[in-house]
Amino acid sequence: MDSSEVSTLSQRDAQFHLHPFTNAVKNAHEGGKVMMRGEGIHVFDEHGQKYIEALSGLWSVALGFSEQRLIDAALRQMSVLPFYHSFVQRSHQPLIDLAAKLIDMAPVPMSKVFFTNSGSEANDTAIKLLWYWANALGKPAKKKIISRQRAYHGVTIGSASLTGMPHVHGGFDLPLDGFLHLSAPHFYREGQAGETEDAFSTRLASELDALIRREGADTIVAMFAEPLIGAGGVIPPPSGYWPKMQAVLRKYEIPLVADEVICGFGRLGRAFGSEHYELTPDIMILSKQLSSSYMPISAVMISERIYRPVAEESERRMTFGHGFTAGGHPVAAAVALENLAIIEERGLVERARVLGERMHARLAELAAHPLVGEVRGVGLIGAIELVASKEDKTPLEMPGKLGALASEALARRHVITRNIGDAVALCPPLIISEQELDDLLNRVSAAIDDVARQVKP
């Protein structure tokens, strides 16, 4: 599309809007897609073109784009109490009910919930909570935090420091000091010749142990991790990874923070990624499918181990000096409660498991394709990694080119997704039907064939 073909809406958008995760100069020249409405798993652009939203927006729209019950829940709450806060011993019923619901759902015992507006804010809050906790314990040196390469935890100053992606750090003078990044647990890319998955996991656990010993366990306050890495490429942990990693953390009494922003509320075919991988976190980070992103809301669940010293410190200081005006907004909380009720009533967690098996069986068939190096995923989340050479796993000319070509080919077939480097990610809404899933996967297969013809005429 050249500048003369950019629509009036796209022109206005580029004139006034600085987009996240976008080349601003490219956007100003070319414009982008402007979406006007949604229906089920589909969105429609300004020209009326219908697309399958194969990434659930941003990994988040579990119930699709037209769930009337969520709209009605928002309207009901808006008409009763359109806003209130939870500062200085105030609250409201939707927030109380949602906190109780989340504590009840938690896969391990949790004590309290702190509400925020996004995954980034929730992870930032967890960082501050842990620093506050360490000070309350009389351990002011215990402030370093462990994360991993290719992890995605957000883009605020603290959460971006947790994130293990160069493009999130570059130009922003990040990460901050004290944020330590381990190797990504991607066996396909990081495993050594002749190494088994279990041996790879042992090596990564040894890396964690060596890092803790080098830095000093008394200086490390926590490890943050997604049960399955999402935006970093849809990377399930290798065999034995989490048992070995948790054993090291327990050895040094270092808390684990499970970032469930993508994994939570059914995406992996279990209520939480922590349940799927038998994690025992002290803190859980929740967002995205919590409200199907109909309203911005996120939450930090904390164990009694974390809560009690924090509460006692707040008494000494006369307050816990942290919070957000819209954190736990009543309309967002009401929508989240209705969203969770629908997920339960319609059995969407189990549905994600069953349809996930169907999706991964189809993806496994693609593994023989000349351009496919690896297919991976769990439940209704997956990725197809494209390579120019299957033997040595090399890219085409430069990393990311094959992935970009695949995204473009899918867009021509009216599928919206994204490539993460050369990995094409799939994360459809949990409400997708068997027929819609088959249609999506047929288009994915055809798009990869399109790319093969394009690069290997």
UniProtKB/TrEMBL annotation:
Q: Which InterPro entries match?
A: Aminotrans_3, Aminotrans_3_PPA_site, PyrdxlP-dep_Trfase, PyrdxlP-dep_Trfase_major, PyrdxlP-dep_Trfase_small
Q: Which keywords label this protein?
A: Aminotransferase, Pyridoxal phosphate, Transferase
SUPFAM superfamilies to which the protein is assigned, alphabetical: PLP-dependent transferases
List the GO biological process terms.
biotin biosynthetic process; gamma-aminobutyric acid metabolic process
Which prosthetic group or cofactor does it need? pyridoxal 5'-phosphate
Supply one GO molecular-function term: adenosylmethionine-8-amino-7-oxononanoate transaminase activity
Q: Which Gene3D superfamilies match?
A: Aspartate Aminotransferase, domain 1, Type I PLP-dependent aspartate aminotransferase-like (Major domain)
The record's comment on protein family reads: Belongs to the class-III pyridoxal-phosphate-dependent aminotransferase family.
Q: What is this protein called?
A: Aminotransferase
Source species: Caballeronia fortuita
